[in-house]
Write a structure and sequence with these properties.
about 40% helix; Nucleotidyltransferase, domain 5; 2 domains; elongated; alpha/beta; about 325 residues; 3-stranded antiparallel β-sheet
């Protein structure tokens, strides 16, 4: 398949054609999200019954203005919002579609200020959208452990040095340490860590990497001894000595992911507090792991991941 054929195929994708319409029209947005969630078999979100119907306006016969469905079995009403990150949100679904599209297709992310300008909504609403979409992109705990060759490295995000010095490991700074494990030609797992001690980093590796993998790191002494826990052993390069690759031994993939993350924060968001950094990592990891999908497929993946997730700041009373 030539590049021209590939481009023509993507432009003919039904999803790519539907998204711009869904971003501009509320009814189209509702029907698009319903299709993404239920396909050709709509069902009740309360009992799972497929004996459901769209409620219509008694005067006009058109679809109900709240886009309600009703279940004939449990008699309850519901909408496509129920059981998703946009449940109980009063923001129009066309804005949700547009923000999902931008968040899933912008390689370095999209700022809430840009969403505010494009959708003509308040900055508070734009932040609300972005935080919940990042939550939809968060891992759900079902990810398989990384296998094969896995590169592990740490990076420091944000803040300014508390004092000047030559310490290469970020100690004595206000920066937030982030650990990354990247499977070559595969997925990435990143997390904010409390520190970069051997105990913390090696524990993080054991949690996300399969025991038969091969570990690659730099010369950081915190990784010493990790090889005994993995059948593939532990190989490392010495950056201090100017060595960045020795055959297939390198951490260039992990460092490339760090560079992309830093450019995202510096170029798009400018500043991210340590309190919310993990949410930006969710989005960055989602984009990395879905990088082989086209834009329409990646957007659909993000929308489908929104089901079954709720972000609630106020916890229900016990």
């Amino acid at each position: 398949m030539t590049k021209r054929d590939r481009k023509h195929q993507l432009s003919d994708s039904p999803v790519v054609e539907q998204i711009p319409v869904a971003c501009a029209n509320e009814l189209a947005a509702v029907e698009f999200l319903e299709q993404m969630r239920w396909g050709a078999n709509p069902c009740c979100v309360h009992c799972g019954s497929v004996d459901v119907y769209k409620m219509a306006d008694a005067k006009t016969g058109e679809r109900n203005s709240r886009y309600l469905w009703r279940c004939r079995d449990c008699k309850q009403q519901y909408t496509v919002r129920i059981g998703t990150v946009y449940e109980e949100s009063r923001i129009e679904l066309r804005h949700w579609c547009y923000t999902f599209w931008r968040a899933a297709t912008s390689k370095k992310g999209v700022s809430a200020l840009e969403i505010k300008r494009h959708c003509q909504i308040s900055y508070k609403s734009a932040l609300f959208l972005m935080n919940r979409i990042r939550f939809a992109m968060a891992p759900d705990g079902s990810q398989e452990p990384l296998t094969g060759v896995v590169e592990c490295d740490e990076v420091y995000i944000g803040g300014k040095p508390r004092n000047k010095g030559n310490n290469p490991r970020g100690r004595g700074t206000r920066k937030t340490p982030v650990f990354a494990a990247v499977q070559r030609h595969g997925e990435i797992r990143r997390r904010v860590v409390a520190n970069v001690t051997g105990e913390t980093l090696k524990s993080a590796i054991r949690e996300v990497v399969a025991p038969f993998a091969r570990i690659m790191t730099d010369e950081n002494g915190a990784y010493n001894g990790i090889g005994k826990d993995f059948l593939g052993g532990h190989s490392k390069v010495c950056h201090k000595a100017g060595e960045y690759a020795r055959g297939d031994v390198h951490t260039n993939t992990a460092e490339s992911s760090h560079a992309l993350l830093k450019r995202s924060i510096v170029g798009i968001y400018h500043n991210v507090s340590s309190e919310y950094l993990h949410r930006y990592l969710w989005q960055a990891d989602f984009l990395w792991n879905a990088r082989k999908l086209n834009d329409g497929e990646r957007t659909v993946t993000a929308i489908k991941a929104a089901e079954g997730k709720r972000m609630m700041y106020r916890q229900p009373a016990a």
